[in-house]
Write a structure and sequence with these properties.
heterodimer; A: alpha/beta; Rossmann fold; 2 domains; six-stranded parallel beta sheet; six-stranded mixed beta sheet; 39% helix; globular; B: mainly alpha; 0% strand; transmembrane helix (chain B)
């Protein structure tokens, strides 16, 4: 509530200061032209997080650029996962948006609820698993990138201890940890991961605290599944290597970031908005990865040439489909084995692979 | 052993950084509330301090100037609060809440062009010899300026509030504004001072975030710390010494939670992340009870507007 109101206030101020009400950003601008398609995005963090929400907003901007005056886009940022999300989404639907993208896992149930009330509005929910007639779902195979960085980390660690800062124990995060571990184990059987949950997607202070504690406990490489650049900056200060998250964070830690797992939503967003414009939108389930460019890793830096070559080979193998992170036989933490996981098993993952010491919060 | 000591040092250093912003903002609010004014805008003033400190440090290259700017920005945001609640007798709770919203929005707007820029870090103190002592050196002689300032301020606030005439007037205004007024003290004037002081310290707390804790500017980077500081003030019964204990306890339990997770012994992380709140509240409530219920530390006029009779 607090955050959402803050945004309203901010936009009111922005409009006042710039003397303009024609700004497309923010909550429900005035309907300028009836023939324009109104599309809206809901973000869990600020667009300036330089991470997850930032990348979604880059996708929104790409839609504006590609489709120009056929669409009018808007966004709401800092929407907490929970009841507030439902109000934010409902308000966008009432404001005449015909296509609404809700971009965080925790918006899943709110999206489904609002979608029931507005059968003529199309919704798209990212990283969840509940579909409906007017709710499509989409996701990116982040775990493919995590396999690659796990391999690099496995090669580069000297203390055999990797620090992993995470947000919430949802399947996407858990499958990321597992994929990372499988990648690391593929090159280094002795590798250990220290997992720290900060229970927030976005709290630079806590992310930095967790990074410092992990480094103190002997981790010499950090990776994260949280959205700010704080951990990377701590790593740089302590002179160790780390990976970025969601966007290329190299500028914050040029000597530290090896690479990052970048989400590229632009292609997807443009294609979906186009379908809506053509009246061909239909509920769908899209899950692209490295092969289609939905996930990509910027140039690998700060590691020796042989490690870089290994990682590039792995990326190529994932791209061509010869390597599947969750292919083959996988041993779970409890000792049981599973084989060749299908998408459903990956999307619902709630167990750790063998070798991870952490207990999964239930 | 070597490794353990290193881990312990990292934990202790992190506890200090995690506690300092809470202490700074809490001290400011403590003085404000001692004067009988409830300013719920701590979060907003903090975030304004964070953005102003970052912007000035980045453009001038001087983190020290950044600190000054952070304090000024916090105080500046307290000005509309003062005008509305003290001069125009608006409701303090509503105005304070609005101040938080204003601060969050305005800081986002001002900070838009600073997002994604690596910041300037407030340097750590380095005393040759002393700061190099293993373990104790960095902990005692190697903190940054604001850490020492926050602890010194706690001592100063404690002294001024309870041992000086100024403190007596401040408490009189907070406990019984009508009598203070009758005695000839300017209730509004004292409250203005307390509100500005509170704003400045909240701004410093925010500046600590963007200059020392995580030297960068991102929107909403205070992430609720202003509210925690507010709660700490109440639970510490408006006593500076207890506020220090509360802030450090909160920081310590937060960081120890991460430490325990890193050990991988499987304590549920949800429990660990709720622990700072539970432990701090329980601890402070227990201390307050032991001091006896008779001692009413709550400023009696807290949150009440004062209209001088003519």
């Amino acid at each position: 509530m607090k955050n959402r109101s803050a945004l309203t206030r901010r936009d009111a101020m922005r409009s006042a200061l710039l003397g303009s009400v024609a700004l497309a950003t923010g909550l429900g601008g005035p309907a300028l032209a009836a023939d324009k398609l109104k599309a809206a995005w809901v973000y869990v963090g600020p667009v300036g997080d330089f991470g997850y929400s930032y990348q979604h907003d880059q996708g929104r901007l790409a839609v504006e650029k590609a489709l120009g005056d056929k669409v009018q886009t808007s966004f709401v940022e800092n929407v907490p996962e929970g009841p507030d999300a439902e109000r934010a989404i409902e308000r966008l639907a009432r404001d005449g948006n015909k296509l609404i993208f809700t971009t965080s896992f925790g918006f899943m149930d709110p999206t489904i609820k609002v979608a029931k009330k507005f059968p003529n509005v199309h919704f798209e929910h990212a990283t969840g698993y509940k579909k409906a007639e007017n709710v499509a779902i989409y996701n990116a195979r982040f775990y493919e990138g995590r396999y690659v960085i796990g391999q690099i980390a496995g090669k580069m660690t000297k203390s055999n201890t990797i620090g992993y800062i995470v947000s919430f124990p949802i399947p996407e995060v858990v499958s990321g940890i597992n994929s990372f571990m499988l990648g690391a184990q593929s090159v280094n059987p002795n590798v250990k991961i220290k997992v720290v949950w900060v229970n927030s997607w976005y709290d630079p202070g806590k992310e930095a605290d967790a990074a410092k504690v992990l480094i103190g406990q002997g981790a010499d490489i950090l990776t994260q599944h949280t959205d700010s650049t704080a951990a990377l900056q701590v790593a740089q200060e302590k002179g160790i290597l780390a990976f970025g998250q969601s966007s290329d964070m190299g500028k914050f830690a040029p000597k530290t970031q090896i690479t990052s797992i970048v989400d590229d939503w632009a292609t997807y967003y443009i294609s979906r908005v186009k379908l809506e414009l053509e009246g061909k939108w239909a509920s769908a389930d899209t899950w692209d990865g490295i092969a289609k460019g939905a996930v990509f890793l910027p140039e690998i830096k700060n590691v020796p040439a042989d490690v870089k070559a290994m990682a590039e080979k792995t990326i190529a193998a994932i791209k061509s489909g010869t390597l599947k992170p969750f292919g083959g036989t996988i041993t779970k933490q409890d000792g049981t084995t599973v084989k060749d996981l299908d998408d459903g098993a990956i999307l619902g993952m709630n167990w750790y692979v063998k070798g991870i010491d952490d207990k999964l919060p239930q | 052993m070597n490794f353990d000591l290193h881990a312990l040092e990292a934990v202790l250093l992190t506890i200090v950084t995690a506690s300092t912003p809470l202490l700074l903002a809490g001290l400011g609010e403590l003085v404000t509330e001692r004067a009988g004014v409830l300013n719920l805008g701590v979060e907003g003033m903090m975030v304004m301090g964070a953005v102003a400190g970052f912007a000035v440090a980045l453009t001038t290259g001087s983190p020290e100037l950044g600190i000054i700017a952070a304090a000024l920005a916090g105080a500046a945001l307290a000005v509309p609060f003062g005008v509305l609640t003290l001069n125009l007798v608006a409701n303090q709770v509503a105005t304070g809440l609005a101040l938080t919203l204003l601060g969050l929005g305005l800081s986002g707007l001002i900070g838009e062009r600073f997002v994604g820029q690596p910041g300037v870090r407030l340097p750590h103190l380095h005393i040759p010899g002393l700061s190099d002592i293993p373990f104790f050196g960095p902990l005692i002689f190697g903190q940054d300026l604001l850490v020492y300032l926050s602890l010194a301020l706690a001592a100063v606030v404690s002294h001024v509030v309870f041992r000086t005439r100024l403190g007596l007037v401040l408490r009189a205004v907070g406990d019984n504004h009508a009598s203070a007024h009758a005695l000839g003290y300017s209730v509004i004037g004292v409250r203005w001072g307390a509100v500005l002081f509170g704003g400045a310290l909240s701004g410093l707390g925010g500046g600590y975030l963007s200059l020392a804790y995580t030297p960068q500017w991102v929107e909403n980077m205070t992430a609720g710390r202003g509210w925690i500081a507010l709660a700490l003030v109440v639970f510490s019964s408006w006593l500076p010494g207890r506020l220090v204990a509360g802030a450090y306890l909160f920081g310590a339990v937060t960081i120890l939670g991460f430490f325990v997770q890193g050990l991988g012994i499987g304590v549920p992380s949800q429990l660990l992340s709720s622990l700072p709140y539970v432990v701090t509240i329980v601890a402070l409530v227990v201390i307050s009870r032991r001091r006896g219920a008779a001692r009413a530390d709550t400023p009696a006029c807290l949150g009440q507007s004062f209209v001088p009779d003519r």
